[in-house]
Amino acid sequence: MLSTETVKTIHLTKDEEARARVLKQIEETEGVPTQNSNLEISDDRPALIRRLMELHKGINQAYALRDTQRLEAGKILLTLRAATPHNDWLPELKEICKAIGMCQSTAYNYMNAAEKGAVPKLKDGDTINGHPMDVIRHIFQTSIRTGNEHRAMQCMVELEASGSTDWMWYRLPIIASEDIGLARLGLHSEIEDLRVQWKRNRNDRNNSHRLFLGHAVLLLVRVAKSRLVDDALGTYYGDQQPIEITDTDIAGAASRCGRAHCNR
Fold first, then answer.
1. For 83, 132, 160, 176, which has the most beta carbons within 10 A of its beta carbon?
2. 159 and 206 share a domain?
């Protein structure tokens, strides 16, 4: 078990705290106002441009410090992992994450960054290789629907590297009902079993957890397709017709109610 002092040593600063600390340093050295300050915008165009440059510099410094801290956090975690017996690492990691208020997925991101020696530079809405995230997600789903194995696997790798693995596990059961439906019964149970195995093996140093994600994707790509469930929902929710009630329905309901009353 880790001592309190060790937990403090490996404390991983959250992004918000890092930005706040850097902005405070910039405020002390360059006069950058905090979010709670009353901002006064000058009408002097050159002064505004100079101010914009100062703000941009401060933002870049904040990002640089954040990336440095992520790499250091990853190196600390890798050091702890190397010193821990393989079977004891997952409980140890859970204890560390609980002690410092960090989710395990963040810890894995830190370690991946440290192993690669750099933090991926992602723009908002972009994948790790600079593709629009929404486009890659669209191709991923369309490729499964059309049975394009090559494109589906390419997008799976891109999305996993870009931190969208949880999104894929969220979408796969939806795709199973929307694009496959009654063509393959029991598919949701298979996907859930694979997700459980993926989660159980996430700490494996050989990345064996990827087997289960790839298994799930290929399963959906190759299985027979049917949009019957999705089409039925579109038909009955899109054009709701009045329910026709016949005398036979009324008589049957009355008879059922009567029998239920007698059996009380």
1. 176
2. yes
